[in-house]
Every structure is written in C-alpha cells, then in structure tokens.
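Schema walk-through. Below, the input block comes first and the output block second. Nothing else is stored per chain. Lengths vary across the set, and this one has 231 residues.
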Amino acid sequence: MKRTTYILIGSLVTIFVVMVGLMVYITGCWAGGVAITVSLKDEMKEGQFNGIRSILVFCDSKPVVEGAQLIPLTRLTIVPSDTFGVQTLTYPACEHVKVAQVGDVLRVDLELQSLVSSKEMEKLRAVLVDGISLELKVDSMFSYVQLGEGKVDLLTKGLTADSLVVRASLEETSQVRMDSCCFRSYDLDGKWLLFEGNNSRVENLYLNLTRIAARMLSSVKFSPSSIEIML
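--- output ---
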C-alpha cells in the first residue's frame, strides 16, 4: 500500500511540474514572435529489413537562424511483424527522411532545415513540422528504442517480447504509450515524457519518475516486488 501511495504521489507531482514547465516554455517560445506549421504531405514508402533489433530516431532541428526554433512533431508506432525475422518501416517518401540499416540497428534521420528558407525563418519564432509518421513492424527479438531531439510520440501496440528499453533525449513533452503488450522487462528513461500503460502485462517495470510523468498504470498488470521506481 505504501509503495502504491508513493508511486501515485510521485506521478501527480511529476505531472504538475511537467505541465507548469510546458506552459512556461510555450509562453517564452512564442511570445513576441510568429509560429507556423509545415506539414509533410508526401506519399508513404515501405522499406523491408532483416535482423533489426533497435531503432534510433534523430532530428537535426538546429535552426538556420539564431533565435528561431524548428520543432518536428514525430509519431512512431511499433507493432508486431507478420513474418518472424522480417521488419518493415513505413515512412514519408521525401528527401527530408533518411533511413539506413547499420548492423541490427535501423536509423532514421530527419533533415528538416531546408523546409523553410533562412529568409523566412528570420520572420518567425518557431516552425512546427507535422506529418512525420513512422510505423515499424518488428518481431519478438526487437529490444531497444532511442529517441533524440524535437518531439516524438511513441506507441508500442500488441508487442510480446522478453524486454524493451526506451531511451529519450527529447526537447519537447512527448507521450510514450504501451497498449496490449507483454514484456518480461520494460525500462523507460528520459526527460519530457508522459508514460501511459493500457491492457498490458509487465513483470519488471523500471521508471525514472524524476523525469517521467506516469499515468494510467492501474491497467498494467505487474508483480509489485519487481518494480523499480526512481524518485
């Protein structure tokens, strides 16, 4: 009972801090400037890969004009593959999204600086890049997700695997959601994250609540003795 109480209190405090920080950030980011949204409306492309165990998503979001911000709004969905050993990635078929396999790692690089010219950026405070949707189909050997830069909302749905490690070094508040999954071990750490679990079973759950706001954990089944919560 005490452990559950500490988890709930830690979650509520973290959510409050994240929301206050986000309000302050947005106020400072757009005050006195103009923000626009640019959408990637390109057709989707599917690439097939073999032996993928990890995915790394990175974005070069450094603006071409000092003081302006380029913020990618990325959505990554990871679902089970139809064939063991074969992984597929569906992504926008455009020059701004680069995909490459290095060993057992699938790397996705978002190169967005050329979306808006430096002359246009001088008039803007921020540019939000929407329409970056990635869907990765994996088998049970998949085990690692690395998210970096911008905003990346992650959804793992219907996965069954021994373990999954998620690491994030994002600059915008992002959602990490688990839906209908089964893991022996699930390890999540990173800043600016909101974690939500639904209809899933996890034997060993590792969360760093100093940087993660956790909610809806009541729908995740786990062994209380196997939880490691860092407050």
